Amino acid sequence: MNITIGIPLALGWAAALLVNYLADVLPATRRFTTPACKQCAAKFAWTDYLLLKGCSACNHPRGWRMWITQVLGVMATIYIWISPPDGLDFWLGFVLLIYLAVVFVIDVELRLILHPVSYFGVLLGLLVGIKLNGILPTLFGGVLGFGIMFGLYYFGVLFARWISKRRGETVIEEGDALGYGDVNLAGVLGLMLGGNIIWLGILMAILAGGLVSIIYIIWMLALKRYEAFAAIPYAPFLIFSAIFFIYF
Maximum distance among all alpha carbons in the chain? Predict the structure, then answer.
């Protein structure tokens, strides 16, 4: 194998293993620990886990997410190896890609953005943002991204409460409207994109989220399984928007 291609292949495979590992253990334990089977909670042997084998205790397979992550991780790493993002070297773009993938996978599966992941994102966002935009635009972008999404979050809370009262139902919890983790993520991405771009990134995410929501509603209506106020994860749209501006 050509060593030029072998390096990003190996790096991408290892990065995807790390993303899968973090997505498996952080939501369950909030710390680095031995991964466990989601079906029977038996601990994996590390050799089985790294070789992508299923649970030896109950024979439960690892699932489609693991394989999709591995394939996309390799493809994305090869892409940024060949064409690093403007203003960033390969390695910083590589670490950023791993971070965004971890947030994406956890939010899609659990609608959850962990605070420790957000704290790490602030440090990474400062590093990326200062390298791309300088200190002041980076800080302004973080404040603006957080502020815009907090306004949307609070509007969602008020709207959900109003709807609940109109229907005489129990008031919907605040997290059901728009997760506060999305607010933190918008602040992190604002650090990366800077004040001139983050508003456009959020707008793109809103439009993409709205389009997918419409398609989802039509699909659920066709299947006669529609439920009002069914939530969809929002972080993926923010992440896709950030990836577009940083990597493309």
Answer: 66
